[in-house]
Amino acid sequence: MTSSQGSERRARHSDLRRGKHRTEEPGENFARGFDALGELALAGVQVSARATDLATGKVLFSVDDHVVMPTASIGKVLLLVEVASRLAGDSSESFTVLDRAPRDAVGDSGIWQHMQSPSLPLADLAALIGATSDNLATNVLIRYVGLEAVRARTEALGLTRTALLDLVRDHRGPDDAPQLSIGSAKELTWLFASLARGEIVSPEVSQRVVGWLSLNADLSMVASAFGLDPLAHRTPDHNVLLMNKTGTDGGVRSEVGVLRGPRASVSYAVSMYYADTMISSRLAVLDGMRQVGLDLLEYVH
After folding, report:
1. What is the bridge-based pairing of β-strands 181-183 and 59-63?
2. I need a labelling partner for 174 at 20 to 30 A (CA). Which of 16, 90, 124, 132 fits?
3. How far does CA 244 lie from the centroid of its chain?
4. Which residues of 175-207 are buried (b: 16+ CB within 10 A; e: fewer)?
5. Closest among 145, 152, 150 to 122, alpha carbons compared
């Protein structure tokens, strides 16, 4: 890096720390979030974030929101959209029973791998993905609908920087996609805002996907600031309602969601890519995401 490039990067991060995109109205300056993201950027974390007002579409803040980032399990939302599209108008298919096979086996997130039942209805697998980001259920559903169908659906939605790239794998070899999914904060906030407004494929499809995502038990990132019960937040709590999806991998923390409150509603996306070499680095990233969450809560409440 040249000295001029280094100076430009420091100036850019200093602008971020000062809240370059703030407004001056109460509850709208996002000072905590900007300061936290700026500190992380100066420490070498790749940061991408965006928030928009759900009613007006106004951009509340943005940080490199066009950049394509690894988003881990967030790409599973695209699979859920395709599954919901297939169920539209044909409720009987939701009871189609799918078997897990040895080739679907994978560890980490999810509970089906710990259950005795070798088969579950299609709609139940989608619910497991929404609730626990279930990797085994993801692989079984991908085998059922096909990655090509998910890609075609993604293209039909007009998404060019967001994609589900592969199955979930315990280990990624040189011939595998380097990431499970990728996405830009700009496209992801649009996707979730459109789901919330019932505009993805149809109101029925959008509502079904939102229902699955509202089960999500992972409130460890941005949503840690909202004070909700991780296991039960499908109805408003202190006039706050959340629908979100998270993605976690080595050096990756990402969250997209819609937060509704008595004053406003927002669609948001925050992604971090960092060197996960020390627990302190991970905790700093999670704290930065929480600071963004505090600003979002203040805006909607």
Report:
1. unpaired
2. 132
3. 6
4. eeeebbbbbbbbbbbbbbbebbeeebbeeebbe
5. 145
Long-range contacts of 3-9 (CB under 8 A, 24+ apart): none
| Of 185, 237, 239, 241, residue with least CA distance to 213 | 241
Which stretches of the chain score pLDDT less than 70? 1-28, 90-91
CA–CA separation, 171 and 194 (whole Å): 34
pLDDT of residue 226: 98
Which pLDDT does position 28 carry in this prediction? 60
Pair of tokens at residue 154: 């993604």
Q: What is the pTM of this model?
A: 0.90
Rounded distance, CA 9 to CA 137, Å? 42
79: phi then psi, degrees, rounded to nearest 5:
-65, -40
CATH 3.40.710.10 assigned to domain 3-300? The reply is yes
d(CA 274, CA 251): 5
Based on the number of CB atoms within 10 Å of its own CB, is 239 exposed (0-12), middle (13-18) or buried (19 or more)? exposed
Q: What is the pLDDT of residue 22?
A: 41
Using CA atoms, how far apart are residues 250 and 59, in angstroms rounded to an integer? 30
pLDDT in tens, 31-56: 889 899 999 999 999 999 999 999 99
Domain ranges of the chain: 3-300
Taking each helix axis as running N to C, give the angle between helix 76-87 and helix 203-213, from 0 to 180 degrees, rounded to the nearest 10. Answer: 130
Strand order in the sheet with 241-249: 59-63, 46-53, 265-273, 252-260, 241-249
Q: Which amino acid is at 152?
A: A
